[in-house]
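User: What would this chain look like folded?
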Amino acid sequence: MTTDIVIYHNPACGTSRNTLAMIRSTGIEPHVVEYLKTPPSRELLVRLIGRAGITPRELMRQKGTPYAELGLGDETLSCDVLLDAMMAHPILINRPLVVSPLGVKLCRPSEAVVDLLPSGLQADFVKEDGEIVEAAAPLRPTPADGTPS
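Assistant: Here's the prediction, encoded as structure tokens.
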């Protein structure tokens, strides 16, 4: 099934891989943008942030990035400064960011993508780490051993 879903993806990220696999498990083949190779334009990034209802700071990734070295933890920095940093260092853009006809969302945790899927999950989904995302209750994952979380 083709549908207009775009995932800004990093194949080295487990959350991003799980999100992509969850989308594909519904029969949808999304448009995959490896944003480290092909970063969005500043204008597009601003639109995505606005549509997701978050701030540039909320989209910033700290771990494994030059966040600290660049002093980006300074709460007085403007949105423009943060956007400039993300344009210069795309690794600062958190992932996966998913765009669908139902909205835009930073899908952390990966099961947040279910809200963007036209028909939700049709079957339970098992993440790479064995955690189960139940089709009937997609936002309440259960550990692989079956104990409630």
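The chain is about 25% helix and 15% strand. If you want, I can go into more detail on any region.
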